[in-house]
Specification:
0% strand, 2 helices, coiled coil
Length: 84
């Protein structure tokens, strides 16, 4: 009962209480939004890094395939030379 009376007095005579509460609510909402944006940015950066790594992997596989083809050609040439 006494607590309610204290809150009532503060609410009536001090507009700062409402302002402070509104500011706290606003601050909490802003902090949540910042966290959400940071998470989205992190996700975007991770997707970009993944795409870059996938491209590098594709290039490495392409080089490996070219080296394997060159190796196979070299083996064929060696066999031809040996049988001449």
């Amino acid at each position: 009962m006494h607590v309610q009376a204290f809150v009532d007095v503060l609410t009536v005579y001090c507009s700062d209480t409402r302002d402070a509460m509104e500011l706290r609510i606003s601050e909490a909402a802003l902090r949540a939004r910042v966290a959400e944006l940071e998470s989205a940015l992190e996700g975007h950066e991770l997707r970009a890094r993944l795409a870059a790594l996938e491209e590098k992997e594709r290039q490495a596989r392409s080089r490996a395939d070219a080296l394997e083809a060159a190796r196979a050609n070299a083996i064929v040439l060696v066999r031809i030379i040996l049988y001449l």
